Amino acid sequence: GELTMSERMEQLQQSLFFERVPSSWSSLAFPSLRALPSWIQNLIERAQQLQEWTDNPTAIPAVVNVAYLFNPQSFLTAVMQ
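Now predict its structure.
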């Protein structure tokens, strides 16, 4: 069978081929200028940090990688209060 690719599918294919973050992903994600492999690794690390917090919500984390937060200023403001 033959598959007809839409314009969005072609854009996604080209972005993945050239190791760029697809615009449909970046519009929903954190701002970044990284290449796709680095972006995915960073996304995994961000998710791991959030998962560690949700696994034990009553424990205060000893270390927080502020760079993994979408809005670090809000987090720092909450800590200061």
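Helices lie at 7-17, 23-26, 36-55, 72-80.
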